[in-house]
Amino acid sequence: MPKSLWNAEARQELLDRLERLKPDARQLWGGMNAPQMLAHLVDWMQMAKGELRTKEKRLPLRYPMVKQLVIYWLPFPRGVPTAPELIGREASDWAGEHAAVCRHVESFEKLDQKSGWPVHPAFGKLTPRAWGVLGYRHIDHHLRQFGV
Fold it and tell me: Is 19's pLDDT higher than 80?
């Protein structure tokens, strides 16, 4: 079974890695610095919880087989454009953004009974299981971006 935000051990692994991330960490690819990446993760988690609206895109990623491959199996590609709503905000301060990401990761445990999940801007409608796997893989991707 793939790692997921629904799993306590996977959440703790991400939290431990987030603790090792430093504000001056250099990215191995991409254009975001570490504070911008944290702001992006906060915004992504808010989007996943339905707290931040994003415009939907009609992409091939919405086809069920493509969606399954990308969410569960294929390595995340580098440098893929994201929803503008998820990259436009400047990080307020390191400690605040860092704490917010950690709170969002921890709070995923309480969302297991959530209904009415939002539509993902690229993938469309997702199951709760897919949201958990995608969330883990998305955070993991960005932590790897900074060597953590």
Answer: yes
- Structure-token pair, residue 22: 């430093």
Quick one: CA torsion of 53, 58, 59, 64, rounded to 10 degrees?
90
pLDDT at 49: 92
What distances in angstroms separate CA 145 from CA 10, 30, 34, 52, 107, one per listed residue? 18, 8, 9, 24, 24
Domains of the chain as residue ranges with CATH: 8-145 (1.20.120)
Report the alpha-carbon distance of residue 100 to residue 120 in Å, rounded.
Answer: 21
Residues 56-91 have pLDDT tens digits of: 888 888 899 999 999 999 998 888 878 878 887 888
Q: How far is CA 24 from the centre of its chain?
A: 21
Check if the beta carbon of residue 105 is closer than 8 Å to that of residue 48: no
Global pTM reads: 0.93
Q: How far apart are CA 35 and CA 22, in angstroms?
A: 9
H/E element, 109: none
